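Lab notes, practical 5.
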Amino acid sequence: MPTIPQLERLLAAEPNDTFLLYGLAQEHAKAGNTSRAVAFYDRVLALDPHYCYAYFHKAKVQHESGDVQSALATVRAGLDAARKAGDRQALGELSGLLDEWE
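Output from the prediction step:
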């Protein structure tokens, strides 16, 4: 996986590339940069509200940082998006998170 600086350089050329934004969110999450990760997940979702795994990973980051209520809200929004997109795999994984956390 490219590093954060490499992804940022690529993003400068393609600022609305959801794959790059998602990659940056993932890398910030791995580095423990919760607020940066959430901000990048939010950018992904603003551009593509059906990018279901952005909800999944955003919720995990929120939950791990102790923001349980926001994590639950994110999972619920992701479930709605997965239903609308017909993404059964994301629906199952998001449902699993909700079951685990409620």
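Observations recorded by the TA: The chain has a mean pLDDT of 96. The chain is about 80% helix and 0% strand.
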